[in-house]
Amino acid sequence: MKTFFFVLCQYKRVGCALPLIFLCVLPLPAVAVESDFADSLFQEGDYLNAAHEYKRFLFLHPDAPQIDFIAFRVAASYQNAGKLEKAIQAYQFLIDTYPKSILVERGKNNIAQCHVLLGDSEQGLASLKRFLSEHEESSLAPRARFTIGMLHADKGEWSRASSVWNDVHSAYPESPFAKVSDRLARTIKNVDTLPRRSPTVAGVLSAFVPGSGQVYSGRTTDGLYTFVGMVVLGSASLYYADQERYEVAIPVGVLSLFFYGNGIYQSVQSARVFNVQREEEFRNRLQQEIRGSGLFGAISPLKDKMEFVVWKYRF
């Protein structure tokens, strides 16, 4: 040891040599550097590259502290990037690999959200109900119940949606979802006052006066075309029959009968479309109110610097 220090002292740049010694003895914390790099990608919105870096971190440092959080970040990155199938797989990996992690609860909830965003409302509904059965006291329970109400409303199941939102309001009065749920439940009561058209009435009207059923359903121009067409074809058929030109009168008469039947069918369909459009407009008003509430703008962070946006697609 004395010889070693004696040799060092022979150099005039002893100050440069000592740092090299300490670098050899104390290596840089590479784990922290890798994690910070992945975090910076996540914060910048480069979610796919962030997912890649988090997965590399999982592979290289499976025993690192808070490794479950890194696994969660993989799934969150995929979800933010819109790769929802991969997000579901990553959340399931977290659940299976770290079953005792506090993040499992949120992972299950986010799996349900991914199913909903994929348009699989049935699977999303089943996942949400399963989550509630397993985590009834979770802080995410109000969100899950509220989302169930959204799914019922999206399918036009107004009474079910109203019942679920009333439950949210009564069961979680301190939750930010309570006030919005109460307002939506009261709004749904107005669904019975929406203007509607009876398909039966529309069909009967067109049977008596061609095109009148379409006018009744709000398609005035189509109704007028149907009426004029029937008048022209019917008149032509009668004219040729009166002239005893049956080779022309019969085909024109058959065509007029087809036109007549099609007018009745179109009237029935127009009434149904009218009702669907009114419900769609009502559903859009509910969606705008939900979006305006800000409840689904962002998920509250679990750790420092963690946040990710969901529900940016149609629910």
Q: Element order, helices and strands?
A: HHHHHHHHHHHHHHH
Helix proportion range:
over 70%
Query: What is the overall silhouette?
Result: elongated
Radius of gyration: 34 Å
Major beta sheet, specifics? none
Structure report:
- By secondary structure, this protein is mostly helical.
- The protein has a domain of 94 residues.
- 73% of the residues lie in helices and 0% in strands.
- The protein is built from 15 helices and no strands.
- α4 packs antiparallel against α5 and α12 packs antiparallel against α15.
- The longest helix is centred in the C-terminal third of the chain and has 48 residues.
- The chain is elongated, with a radius of gyration of 34 Å.
- The relative contact order is 0.07.
- The N terminus and C terminus are likely disordered.
